[in-house]
Amino acid sequence: MLDEAMTALAAAGGTAVVQAAGTEAWTGLRQAMARLFGRGDDQRASAALERLDGTAAAVSAADGGNAEQVRFHQGVLWQGRFEGLMESVDAAERDSVVAALRALVAEYIPSGRSGGGEVSGNTFNGPTIMQVGNGNRQDNRFGNGA
Length: 146
What we know:
Elements: H1 4-20, H2 26-38, H3 42-61, H4 67-88, H5 91-108
């Protein structure tokens, strides 16, 4: 079972894959992810490349009406793949996989943002509260004394 930090890292990895698909960063990320999933085994690396290419094709083929849904779905698929990868290795190798994935996420998710200012690609089905940014303060008061 993965801890919350590893689950969040897996989600960030999924986001990185989807954000890079179809951009100039794709080739570099594609090769780096194949190395990460391959871990020295050409067959595993080749299988990862096929899955990555499938993601790129799905994202580029999505039309405006369902593009966000396709991107979300692909991100969730990759989150699951990263979680599966982390769960499939022993503790020592997991540390190596986590470090490599963390470095890839840092490299391929735009870092010009320092904790906020843009929120995109979200779907909310019901009441939602969201806050982004650094050093935010939010005071909520409900009831008669509000």
